[in-house]
Protein 1
Amino acid sequence: MIMQFNEETFREDYTFHNSDWAINRFPFPFHEDSYMYAVNMEQHRGGPEGSIYEKRFDVDEHYVAEMKDRAMVLSDDPLRCQSLPHMTLAGWDLLELIMVSKSEDYPDLFELHRNGDKWHWINKPLGIEDHFTFLDETTLPYGPMEYITRQTQGDFCVLDQRDDNLWMDAGIVTTQADWSLDFDIGMNFFEWHAPVPLAHEKGIFVRALKFLLNIQQGAPARRLNWTMTVNPLLDTSPENYHKWGVQKTEITPENIGRKQYLRVELQTFFRLPRSNGLVFPIRCYLIAFEDLVKIPKWGRRLHRVIRDLPVELATYKGFIDNRPMMLDYLSEFDDGEPTSDGIWPDRHLE
Amino acid sequence: MSAGTEKIAVTVTDIVKVNDLVTRFKFEPTKGGLLPTFSGGAHTVVEMKDGNITRLNPYSLMSDPWDQSAYTISVRRDDEGRGGSLFMHNSVKVGDQMVVSNPVNLFSLDLRAKKHLMLAGGIGITPFLAQIKQLDRARGNWELHYACRNEALGSYVDYLTSTHPNDVNVYYDDEKQSIDLENLLDGQPLGTHIYVCGPKGMIDWVRGKAAELGWPREAVHYEEFLAPQSGKPFEVKLAVSNKVIQVGEHESLLEAIERAGVDAPYLCRGGACGQCETDVISYDGKFLHRDHWLEDNEHASGKKIMPCVSRFEGKTLVLDR
């Protein structure tokens, strides 16, 4: 297919919108009518054609607009992108992984030509063409991690692996669900997960870390995570909470369908071969309630999940105050009928 | 979680006898194209079809990690072993097709180190050969101290001393030369990391001395792959797959599980990585634990076993596999 990129914004006038194509392929995160933390990992090796799982790094209609938003966030706050000195090699690993993946998966959009360490990269949607020397930072306008992630949707945590732990030693984080790279930089896996409720008691993080430490080259993994966001805001950061936190009070029964968004993260995990680091891309997908309920199965199920979610989780995810209004809205789309297993729609929008 | 690691079909394109004990093998991708890059210190698991037995032995990659045209390994012949190294020495010929795993690194460089101090014993030199190539490209600061039996058995001594005369120090046991460890560790700049690969005695000696001198645990890295040892045959019940298997005298428990067609996870196959850790449901007998993954209290508990290197003697053993 020929991809059309939306003209849209994720701030101020919020013109972000999903086409029917984007709604049909939305990564609805609930495979059953309830939700609790689990080590819900699976292999990241493709998926149904056209789904967000199909390619290693999904490119969709929001690509160009998301990259413009990232550039604005970085211009306002350069600390959203940091790389400790020992992580430069992992940055090259990431650049290589993304350039090779995108040029193979989307040959119409991206081209990579390599002659030894002389590389030639063409990014057609963003109008970028650069010649550079692989592993020589002086030949790129940014460090290797920043260069390639200014051209790739999703946040990226580049983790060092040592002492049987993972360390948040580099990353670019501009589309996050209320956490801060600048605060977490240099922390280990248990330290940066300390604020998460209930999961520690369940031993989730000990098992998740063990799984992640053993992710091998050529065998990436993935999971979904989710939260709620008012307005289609990519940058829900602690640094800017004074700007977006107040918007949670603007929800009314009249506007909730178009202002309340389900925010889903496709989290993937790749071993980086040259550095033995691990990269953790966190790709954010947004969908308005009014679009989500167009898929009847999703409307029914979201109502049941939100209704039965433990208070701790609704509080941690930041929507405990608006939960009653959400349930009023969603209950209109729950007729009590049974739902089928799995996340996929029973039928797509035509 | 899938068992083991991704596999690569390769062809043996060169075999070089390095000395009386060590032979080097070069693998190129059978289908053409490029092999994955790796990081210095990584190993690959080589599959050997030895009659009706499939052996899976880990060997450190010694080639340039950035060279995607071929992988090379060096295999030391172990006449007392279960036969993997003998198979490589006696049966593998140029042109043979084999299967190796994607690289796995359990002995990675700490890239924060201001200096990398490498201590090698015998065939333990191989991971350092790849690490040195990686560090040279990044203009890293390193120093190697390499102990071997004598000049004739000093694999790659000539190569190392001719390419890096100022960074390589060689010690021959037969000439009563030995590393002056205490002085060596005492004279290192702050931010130095120690890496040791060699026989168990050498690893214990270096780790012990470093601890005694107050080195942080995180600054001391070691890799010791144990070869599974032979032992008395024993019987095991696999509860999940509902099978009863026999573990042969020259076979590891992990190999016997695989031979029965049961998918079991593994990475290093040498008691180090923890991937094959298996829960014991019940037993009547005694465990012969040989790994260095489980803690002493776990060994004593009778609840866990590492089937890659550990064995069992007794009446019954039931595993959660």
Protein 2
Amino acid sequence: MQAFSFGELQTAVIMFLLIGFFAFQGARNGFIAELIKAGFIILGVAVGRPALLGDSVVRTLNGIYQALLFLAYGGGKAVLTGDVSPEAFSRAFMRVQAARPLISPDDKLIATFLLMIALIIIGLIAGNKLRSRGGPILGLLLGAFNGLLLAYLFIPLLPRDLPPLPTSPQAARPAILGLLDVFDVIFRIVVLPFAILFGNLGTWSIPILILALLLYVGWRGASSR
Amino acid sequence: MGPIEILFLVIFLFFLFVALVRGYERELGVTTLIFVALFIITFFGQKYVPLALRYLTQLLNRPPFDNRTTQHILSLTFSIFFILVLFSSYAGDTFSFKGKLKRGPNAVVLDLLIGALNGYLVAGSLWYFQDFYEYPFADTGLLILPLRPPAEAFANYLPPYVAPPMFWAGMVMVLMLLRVRK
């Protein structure tokens, strides 16, 4: 049997704590607040992934920045004074083209990551401001989902001996890999405590546990008709 | 379909929810029949069905099945038998226990415990029928192999691996005693 490492145990504990904390917050804040939180988290995730929204957001921000530079480098003055000569515009364009973009290709990853963090923080603050809206049970479930999403996002980034989540050998199917990783984490959480317990005590402890459970239920909850 | 542990999780969660809806009193009846099925399969089935299969091929005067085909047939036969027993435990007038707890948090805890046990027994047994016969279902392409590390670790704890056949018979007796005790 492959033993679960200490790092995996840490991962599971952190995940439990995150999911539990967010589920508790969700039950307290209600469904609507958690929905807003979930919306911002999902938006943050999309912005954090270049292939989803990251590249578009970077292009848009660079475009806005260049438009502002154009205005600052003489384009605005030319429009205001009525000097709309091609020379004035081309001078401004040349300076804009020579200027460094707001987010260079080297900075793209860190910038989208920071944007993702910012969106998530905005979502958490906005969600916590909207207390007592909607049902607590749905809030709890959605809160747990938010916790799972955040754990899934950030646990691989923790700078310790946390192992990277194993990916499927079917690397040709990248679209489902993220989902598989989430399932993998859930499976580990469900299995890990038992694996540690039975790994130490031996497999014979499972039948004993089953027997104990049935006797407990028989004693506590079930009786003859 | 995907990795087998996902299938396991889905079935496990399904039984957890079913137990929450039906209550532990009714689910204990299902547990009893699962034990019966496990005993029949592991004590008689795995010993006699391969012999019967060999006898049948001789009777029909045809060459014996190759090893992989035999694995397919046995795995499928036991899975279908197990699912039929499971279905019968839910269909019609079901075998159930009478609870004495009022519906509330304590009863919900018992629902979850028995639901988890049933989920483990059902999903674990179906997984076992694949694992024991070297995953014949993977030949269809619906199951992804090799197993990922957590699944490989968990495959050691599938119900028929952790207890001998007589244990399941013993469990049936324990449940029967609980059912009839005054």
